[in-house]
């Protein structure tokens, strides 16, 4: 006969008891362990929580601190600029290296003679497309138009590019979206915005994405750096040394007797070069318009060239 210990039936009866004891022991150990952790563990969060909670705020703060609201800074700087009753001003500035920009004021303005940069840029683009260089006559007109702001030369090249249609076609390629050529022979009444003028300046002074060749850009930049003595005002007032390049525009509107005074160009300051566009209208005199344009240019550059006190400097300089 089989021994009772060896009978399968006996093993089956004892197995549930042993299993129950094992389960009870494991559960008990877990309960004791949990009680111990609650009573003795460090009250702070677990390592995973520490990692996420410590890194998230630091990263978040860094991201917030690195975002500078330059529009707000420019608005604060412009608060120190005197704008006469009835006058309006719009200004935009760009750091071509970082791509950071700031703008103040809105609206569409008459270009007056700053459109001459656009006219020459359109002519150079057309010449590139035709695979040719400018003729001697075109170059003589270009020099007089930019350096001396000669209106007859501008009218001649305005006709050469196809007047407003030619300008608008070039500007579509340049990326100007709110600039429209003046009617008929009235190139000075071309409409534009400060933001569009920055886009145009990037075509002239930039390299990446410009429709103009390097030789075309260099030619136009060279002319803008040789402006006649009596016209060296405007955005150059914000420069801290040589190397500026600009084109100014001024026009007394016959309908109101008030002045349109604009200035665009590149301004060296603090070891950097900034692109600045200032548009204004409604000044009682040309001198008042120039003062306004220069003060606005200094305010614009101060957003980049001296954020720890340059705003005050703008206020001190605006009356000079």
Automatic annotation (TrEMBL):
- Known InterPro entries for this protein? Beta-lactam/transpept-like, Beta-lactam_cat, Beta-lactam_class-A
Q: Which domain of life is it from?
A: Bacteria
> Which Gene3D superfamilies would you find in this protein's record?
DD-peptidase/beta-lactamase superfamily (3.40.710.10)
Q: Which GO terms describe its molecular function?
A: hydrolase activity
Pfam assignment, any one: Beta-lactamase2
Locate the transmembrane regions by residue number. Answer: 20-37
Keyword list (alphabetical) reads: Hydrolase, Membrane, Transmembrane, Transmembrane helix
Q: Which residues form the Beta-lactamase class A catalytic domain?
A: 142-279
Q: Please give the name of this protein.
A: Serine hydrolase
Its source organism is Streptomyces viridiviolaceus
